[in-house]
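Handout for the seminar on molecular recognition.
Each group receives one record of this type.
Step one: identify the two inputs.
Step two: read the structure output and locate the region that could contact adenosine-5'-triphosphate.
Step three: write two sentences on what you found, then compare them with the reference statements printed after the record.
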Amino acid sequence: MGVLPLELSEVSFRAGGRTLLDRISLEIGEGPRTVILGPNGAGKSLLLRICHGLLGGFEGTAAWKGPDADAARQRQAMVFQKPVMLRRSVRANVEYGLKLRNLPLDDRRERTRQALERAGLTGRAEQSARQLSGGEQQRLALARAWALRPDILFLDEPTASLDPGATGAVERIIDEIHRSGAKIVMTTHDLAQARRLADEVIFLHAGRVVERRPAADFFAAPESPEARAYLSGELLW
Ligand SMILES: Nc1ncnc2c1ncn2[C@@H]1O[C@H](COP(=O)(O)OP(=O)(O)OP(=O)(O)O)[C@@H](O)[C@H]1O
């Protein structure tokens, strides 16, 4: 049981006289970790925001098709490049999202405890969240998302401003969230990271899905000239 798949049918987004997403049809189902790649401005963030329901005003449809589709709002989470922390303790940042979902107090406490432990933040629970380093804040953002037990987690360049150590820690948490049963859909500009995390790649260029393939195949032999150019560092937009 779950909210997936998510079906996008002929999704286009236009603004300022430009077509930023162009007739995107995709089915996002349970299972493999999906990484969306593409040059700056390709439309990756727009696509994620439409999937997560943060952006309206598009043409076409984006619909949850799973048996629990009515609960889709509650069963998804998103983590951004720059996490927004409440001006509260680390613990309160996790508990807040659970409170909004009306979970009983005991559940909230237990889920918060688990999420902070998994993110390696137990010792920081009472500290102000805004005093954490960038890497710690991103781990907290992941803990906050994980505590919600989402069916699907969207991540928009979650390690873009982190050093290699912090990036590794974030990747390990993403991997654990996936192994706990959540579908992962993320964007990144870090190709080494994409190779480490992706089971499949969706390659976007100029608002269109140019390729969608198992990651190993995509990296070994991209089919489109755009993806070949992108992987060799020659496609700038
Ligand atoms: N709400 C909006 N209204 C108008 N234009 C937008 C809006 N959001 C994004 N854009 C434009 O749409 C294009 C695609 O943006 P998007 O952020 O999705 O790209 P991206 O692939 O995520 O790029 P990057 O890798 O640089 O983050 C860009 O040219 C951007 O300026």
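Reference statements: The two ends are 40 Å apart (CA to CA). The chain has a mean pLDDT of 95.
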